Amino acid sequence: MTQATGNLVRQRTENGITTVTLSHPERRNSLSMAMLEALSDVFTAIEHDSETRVVVLAAEGHVFCAGHDLREMRSQVDSHEFQLALFQQCSKVMQQVVNLPQPVIARVAGVATAAGCQLVASCDLAVAEQGARFATPGVNIGLFCSTPMVALTRNVSRKHAMEMLLTGEMIDAPRAEAIGLVNRVVAADVLDETVYRMAATIASKSGHTLKIGKSAFYRQLEMPLSDAYEYTAEVMAANACTDDAREGISAFLEKRVPDWKHR
């Protein structure tokens, strides 16, 4: 099933995989206020969709996402109220990606810059085609990529992040993989095959277990070591008592495929 949101975002669900596609290539899929609001609406709906096990975030055209719409920003250059609302809305969307119960895979073809690079970094996983390029180039136009920095620094080391932020230079896909911004780099002709094979593998698991694991992953990252172990011990104990854990353990011991109830 395919749905459209204001012609800016398309959504299709098949076999437990929901593909969300930025669909404004003529503006380089830039994150205008309208695009951000459309994405927010889509992610809100997906959060409560029990049929979706995995989300793939894709884009039309030769640019994955060029960041914010600079024409829109320039038209409101004297409005602190608008600029603040724009960056707050963007921050909301990035947090929605992280807080979705379903894992999110970025399918990156073309260029991802500024808030577009932030969007890739916010996803749980990312697969890029060999020609993809990434940058946080705000410093080049006098607007430091401060909000993209939040997602970037949670994915790559400080020095690699600072190099991208301070130089504003493009890095290629192999470099993005080497510093941990993306998981895999593949030829363009196998990008979809790779992304959807990964998505199908994840979608075959218990949706309830994926939800537990994703939430715990991000929560424990911000904790001191001892607190993280205390918290995850509680998470695992509760997880072990769920229907799907009981079924999964039994299926493993009985050498059969588990019949997930997603609870």
UniProtKB/TrEMBL annotation:
GO terms for molecular function: hydro-lyase activity. It comes from the Bacteria. One of its GO terms (biological process) is fatty acid metabolic process. The keyword Hydrolase does not apply. Signal peptide: none annotated. CDD domains: crotonase-like. Keywords: Fatty acid metabolism, Lipid metabolism, Lyase, Transit peptide. It holds the Pfam family ECH_1. Transmembrane segments: none annotated. InterPro entries: ClpP/crotonase-like_dom_sf, Enoyl-CoA_hydra/iso, Enoyl-CoA_hydra_C, Mitochondrial_ECH-domain. Belongs to the enoyl-CoA hydratase/isomerase family. NCBIfam families: PRK08139.1. May play a role in fatty acid biosynthesis and insulin sensitivity. This is Enoyl-CoA hydratase domain-containing protein 3, mitochondrial. The lineage of its organism: Bacteria, Pseudomonadati, Pseudomonadota, Gammaproteobacteria, Pseudomonadales.
